[in-house]
Amino acid sequence: MRRRLFAVAVLAAVATAAGVVPATAEIAQPAVVTINPVDWTPHVLDGTVRAIVQVGDSIVVGGDFTTVATSDGRFRHRRQNIFAFDAGTGALRRFAPSVDGPVYALAAGPSGTVYAGGAFRTVNGVGQRGLTRLSVSTGGRVTSFRAGINWGDVRALALAGTRLYAGGAFSAVNRVPRAGLARLDAGSGAVDTGFDARLTAVDANRARVEDFALSPDGRRLIVVGAITHAAGVPRDQVVLLDTGGPSAVVANWYTDAYQQDCDPRYDTYLRGVDFAPDASYFVVVSTGNMTGATRMCDTAARFQVAGAGRHPATWVNHTGGNTLFAVAITGTAVYVGGHQQWLDNPHGNKSAGPGAVSRPGIGAIDPRTGRALAWNPTRSRGVGVRAFLATGSGLWVGSDTDQLGHEYHARIGMFPLP
């Protein structure tokens, strides 16, 4: 146990020294988590959990929901789109801000605060569209943080020192033009005027960031979404940005893996991305509603970061026609979630093809081989897993259903490390 916690603590110390708070799952874990969820987590009784982050000894949860119950089901509490609980016991916190729309993204802030992004327009009765910073102890707005988007929503957040990255569907922040991606001052919310990736899409005014992942050292940002160009350079749905300096620099890295169309209704079929803890590779997950071993629809795919120019996928794992929404990399495993029925299924067509393995709703992939690991807790599929968070204790999972690991866990649960 000490060795496991030491490994996590070392990585956390390095990240802290660099001024970086990992945005998703850039936490190294020396083992695959168990298939038996802990029994003490609360239950979200409606809607969908879409974001999870740890702030100190609290887990903060965002999504579109209205009611949360204690782990034993005895007490119900109104919690509108965001709530918090003790990371070790599941006891609900008094944290209950009034947010009038869904929360899609969270990032841990300094001094016991949390940044929240989503499709809301007001926070605690005050107009603040799409972005806010909250005290986890009181639920109050941090009034010095004044950021707001012009329309749409915020779907991804990441903090690196004094810089906050925000991505989503918007075209301006604080009335400063920014197409789907902005870097802000983490204290005031002011837009970093020197940082502009100039994302464009087929509809030039509708570039959209579905997800991004910040490398643990804060120097690279991998962005996926409805993107055709960044800073005038062609980039099909995926762009790697160098973020260590004052401006957004499009890296000499690209892939043509996603040039092939999936369902024509999608302006992007990429849904999630995460960096490995050592930042040497990342994994992208997708939807697409089309099958075939040569297509990238409904897949998880690993890409190496090193090197310049064109990068093919190192490996691709196919579901056989079912969407993956979320991905978390811990070094020992690439966890994927959605409403998939199988992994290792390149020849399936909403069916189990040769070699397919059953992994309903959640699964894990060997980061070296790209093949499914034996880990198979199962979950009721619904629309799918929308959020992962890897910590020193285990893997948190947020979704829209109430069965996880063959047990009742409404919309949130945690698989501990062995």
TrEMBL record:
Keyword vocabulary terms for this entry: Signal
Pfam family, one: DUF5122
SUPFAM superfamilies according to UniProt: Quinoprotein alcohol dehydrogenase-like
Residues in the signal sequence: 1-25
InterPro entries on file: Delta_60_rpt, Quinoprotein_ADH-like_sf
Protein name: PKD domain containing protein
